[in-house]
Design goal:
By secondary structure, this protein is mainly alpha-helical. It contains five helices and two strands, in the order αααααββ.
Amino acid sequence: MTPVAAEGLKLPAGLRELVGEDAAELAGLICGLYRDDQAYRHAVRDGRRLIRENHAEAVVMAALQIVIDGRKLPTQRMTRGAPAVSAA
């Protein structure tokens, strides 16, 4: 994915390595995953974990409840081009 697509996502290190600046870099990353079955499986595992931990219904509902209750959600700040979570 592009840096713009990755913006604001809590990407684990393995997925941050799959961010490319241009078409050639993205094509190289995709081909690398195609050729390396272990890297592909790690990316799938990390992607599924990202979705489960950040976008599952229970996680979203808990975040919405925090907002409804007027509490502050944890915020993200950029650290060396990758988001880092901190308490607001």
